[in-house]
Write a structure and sequence with these properties.
249 residues; mainly alpha; 11 helices; 82% helix; disordered N terminus; transport; cytochrome c-type biogenesis; transmembrane helix; membrane
């Protein structure tokens, strides 16, 4: 009985010394941010890739002289740029953990798997937003600088934010599932595009409406934005619940 009492006291002591969920989240997020700011591997590769995509866009649209035509499908071009750049970054999101063996240490530590998901999704979101701060203005300068944009153009910030949150949340789960697979770069794209299609469709629709500024279409903008927000809530909640199985498998 005395041994059982001492064992129970030891467990209680460990539980008291265990950091809170917020402290765990803050430590994991700070680790990812410090590591990326020190190496800049993920940010640099994403920015360079986005510049290459913009160059390809320039070559493909060189024969389109009418700026209005470019504006009409600029929302789709912009989101194609964001998605493919995000896939490159998401593939690199666990590279440091897998190469240095840090992931095994995280799995052995008494850390809630949902906290790991939240920290990694937050860091991915921050990095994606940093890249968008560079690429989105460049997209406007290269392709829409001579077009007469409506006053509703700044509204694209809403679908950009909502869409990026969904991309980071869903992409974190799928990139975790593809960590130890062969050809994970291709596998992540195969998994991500079908799963994220409703989000991308809604965000492209909302972005296109904001760029065109046609009267009578703003009901479509808010409907699409609501669909994207509902997708974020449902899919991020599902990713939160499934992340323990994805990380431990």
């Amino acid at each position: 009985m005395a041994g059982m009492h001492r064992g129970k006291s030891g467990v209680d002591r460990v539980e008291r010394l265990r950091p809170s969920a917020f402290a765990q989240y803050r430590a994991l997020l700070a680790k990812d941010v410090r590591q990326e700011l020190r190496t800049r591997e993920m940010l640099t590769s994403m920015i360079v890739y986005s510049l290459l995509v913009l160059t390809i866009y320039g070559a493909a649209l060189a024969q389109v002289g009418d700026k209005l035509q470019i504006v009409s499908f600029a929302g789709g071009l912009l989101w194609a740029l964001i998605v493919f750049t995000s896939l490159l970054g998401l593939n690199r999101s666990f590279s440091h953990e897998t190469e240095s063996g840090c992931l095994e240490g995280i799995l052995l530590a008494p850390i809630d798997r949902a906290v790991v998901f939240l920290a990694k999704a937050t860091s991915n979101l921050l990095f994606l937003l940093m890249v968008e701060l560079v690429t989105v203005p460049l997209f406007f300068v290269f392709f829409l600088s001579g077009a007469e944009l409506p006053s509703t153009t700044p509204m694209i910030l809403l679908p950009l934010l909502v869409g990026t949150v969904g991309v980071a949340g869903v992409g974190t789960l799928l990139s975790t599932m593809a960590i130890d697979t062969r050809g994970r770069d291709v596998l992540l794209a195969i998994l991500f595009i079908p799963v994220a299609f409703p989000l991308l469709y809604a965000c492209v629709s909302a972005t296109g409406v904001a760029l065109m500024g046609v009267e009578g279409t703003f009901a479509t903008f808010w409907r699409s934005l609501a669909l994207a927000a509902a997708y974020d809530v449902v899919m991020i909640a599902a990713a939160w619940g499934l992340y323990e199985f994805a990380l431990d498998s």
